[in-house]
Amino acid sequence: MKTPGSVLRQLLAANDQAANVVRPVPFIGIYDLFSARLAASRFDTLFVSGFGLAASTYGLPDVGFMAWSDLLTFVHRLRHAFPHHHLLVDLDDGFGDATMAAHVAHAVERAGASGIVLEDQRRPRRCGHLHGKEILPLEEYLLKLRAVLDARDSLVVVARTDATDPEEILRRVRAFEAEGCDAVLADGLDDLDLLAAIRSSVRCSVVANVIGGGRTPPCDRETLGRLGLNLLLYSTPCLFAAQRAIEQQLMSLTEEQLPFSDSLRHGVSLSECQEVLKDSLWP
Hints:
Number of helices: 12
Order of helices and strands: HEHEHHEHEHEHEHEHEHHH
CATH superfamily: Phosphoenolpyruvate-binding domains
Shape: globular
CATH topology: TIM Barrel
Distance between the termini: 33 Å
Structural class: alpha/beta
Radius of gyration: 19 Å
Number of strands: 8
Largest sheet: 8 strands, parallel, barrel
Strand content: 5-15%
CATH architecture: Alpha-Beta Barrel
CATH class: Alpha Beta
Helix content: 40-55%
């Protein structure tokens, strides 16, 4: 019987480092069901971004305000709306110790997640592209990672490090792979050569997290493919685009001398929005 995790694992296996030309699979970060509806019309790979979910749920930055119950509810809704899409979920630090991380990972898998990303940060945690992060001792994180791996059925597990020292990054990703994770991610890197070094250090899939205005140098998907990366997380394109569009729309509405229809020139029409929201179960 195929499960969301086994289907995602097949996707990664088909695009592993043994391929002559690696074409990184893009996962599109979404922050609510409407952004997911838009992304799902073009991509079958969706990423539940912790940054985006914190912003949309609480209007707060990605520094650990999200509760695991919020995440679980969102994954339930997302899987119901998109039963055939790949869903990769940002699990942050697992919301606590090893027991809690294993419980949350198992619950998220049962809710329909295809895979998760589990980081080695110490609380208070923050977005991987920001400064001031603290990481757990390696063995403490490995206890958490082992617990998650033991608790899963077929869930794909991406082990993420937020270390900044290159030698420590390489030490950690090797240790993560030795535990049996499906992929590794070193977040917030500002050196593409280090991504290549990670690729040379492990046999499992390698992931990069690409954020607009983040620390990763500007580069295209083809360049990252040549480095041997298998999967790309575009964590925030929907959120950042929405912020700019909403700001422009609100600026238009402050120009009271314009007719109402003209003041909405940055937006879409009612029929265009309805087209996105239509459901096969409704006329």
